[in-house]
Amino acid sequence: MLPYETLEDATVSLGRNLTLAEILWFQYSARKSDYILFCHNALFFFILYTIFPLPYMILELMRSEKIDKYKLQPNVKNSLADMLDGYRKFLYIFLPVVLPLQIFSCSTLKNIGIRTGLPLPSRSEIFWQLLVYFVIEDYAHYWLHRLSHHKWFYEKIHQVHHEYTAPIGFVAPYAHWAEFIIGGSATLCGPMLVPGHIITFWLYLILREMESIETHSGYDFPWSPTKYIPFYGGAVFHDYHHFVGGKTQSNFAPMFTYCDYIYGTDKGYRYMKKFEKTREKLKEK
Ligand SMILES: [Zn+2]
Ligand SMILES: [Zn+2]
What we know:
By secondary structure, the chain is an all-alpha fold.
């Protein structure tokens, strides 16, 4: 809730005119408690995982030779029932784990210093904070994921996420509840170290969730805007991790490729890419 009664009060307090984004933010948030604003995280999570995988689901139902060019494991065909089962698995993790966790962690988000008031952050502040959040999370997640492939951890916890050797977008968050909580702490590392505005935090969660759906979609499109992000692994990188399955010691980082390159855990993947390239060249001859 903002500490101003009117827009004029906010203008006087900031000592300047509000930008259009700040006026809109004032109108949206002035009468909402911080608790309600922090609860938006669960709402975004639900909406994104319900809507964003739908185009991939339609593609899967319309499978043809043209579409198969972009399917990472073209031998795998999912029926409508398979995909509805994937959505059921999303609800299985959302309702008893994500929803209560996000609702009960609202005070934590406030305590780590995420602010909800005015002024809004500048575009450069948002950009640099997002970059820091993604780099920190990628690094933390790399090690947690690598650890989760040790025998005990894998058998007790991580194998739930590996139920799908050819994943679909709906099952991106499908995991053991303990893995979800541990993974969530990696997501919070960046905002804890460099706390920012809730708008930046929302953007971070939305982009992270969209990235997770894309990397589990089973499709790789050459025109995807994510291809322009340096070191971005994308669907092809993470799909390989699922394809190899529990015994894999490859492609642990969730977003970028450099951790696996630096620590030598992408050798199998690179060998496969090299093999595919050579095969394509031979076909062209
Ligand atoms: Zn794994
Ligand atoms: Zn996965």
